[in-house]
Write a structure and sequence with these properties.
The chain is of the alpha+beta class. It has five helices and five strands.
């Protein structure tokens, strides 16, 4: 009897659940479809959607703020100071360019899409774009090299910057050594101060001390008063 009751109960539950599912299906059968035929059709994401990270390298001023704000440290930037003979193009806002951005690498395979780099960028160089495909069959396919300088030009600028820094460090070391030598020479030429005699070692104090090392006391008269 118990087996028969369980059989009819399972049959009832099966018919009921199938009916509920088919009711949902028939309810959407004659309505507008909510799916798209990807990749022939694509959805349009909201303007602030964090889909694909891109940058406009021409508007980057090399401030390194995005690299410092990244919590997973996937943005690697290297800059070189502009010299007068370089004559680089100005920034998009008309201000003179002060730094060469010779390296701007991003490891998108480690990006957590937090958006901190885009929020802190002062020029709007790094930002999100409404794109879908951010996939690759290899890890190298998610590596972004956004610097616009050729490899030989990067090497030339980096070598020149290293030479300039070495010359500045050499001049600073020479100036510090000259300052120390001048201070040492001044301390040698300056006469030593005369020693100051203390009261304990003065001749008057020594005359008051007897041979046993005790200070003599003034004589006392019969009235109990000290003799002047």
């Amino acid at each position: 009897m118990n087996h028969l009751h369980k059989y009819f109960r399972d049959l009832y539950l099966g018919v009921t659940t199938i009916s509920i599912g088919m009711a949902v299906t028939f309810r959407h059968l004659f309505t507008r479809a909510v799916t798209v035929q990807y990749p022939h059709e694509k959805l349009t994401y909201p303007p602030r959607a964090r889909t694909m990270l891109v940058t406009d390298i021409d508007s980057c001023n090399g401030c390194l703020q995005c690299s410092r704000a990244c919590p997973v440290e996937i943005i690697h930037i290297q800059t070189v100071k502009v010299q007068p003979e370089d004559n680089p193009p100005d920034m998009p806002d008309g201000k003179p360019r002060k730094l060469h951005v010779v390296q701007f690498d991003v490891e998108m395979s480690k990006c957590i899409h937090c958006g901190l780099c885009t929020e802190i960028c002062s020029t709007g160089s790094i930002h999100w774009e409404n794109q879908h495909e951010e996939v690759s069959y290899a890890r190298d396919g998610l590596f972004r090299d956004w610097s616009s300088y050729p490899l030989d030009e990067r090497k030339r600028l980096l070598d020149r910057d290293a030479v300039i820094k070495a010359e500045k460090a050499k001049k600073a070391a020479e100036a510090a050594a000259a300052k120390e030598a001048a201070a040492a020479k001044e301390s040698v030429e300056k006469p030593a101060p005369k020693p100051v005699e203390s009261k304990e070692t003065s001749p008057k104090a020594e005359s008051k001390v007897n041979k046993e090392g005790e200070t003599p006391q003034p004589p006392v008269t019969e009235n109990g008063k000290e003799d002047a």
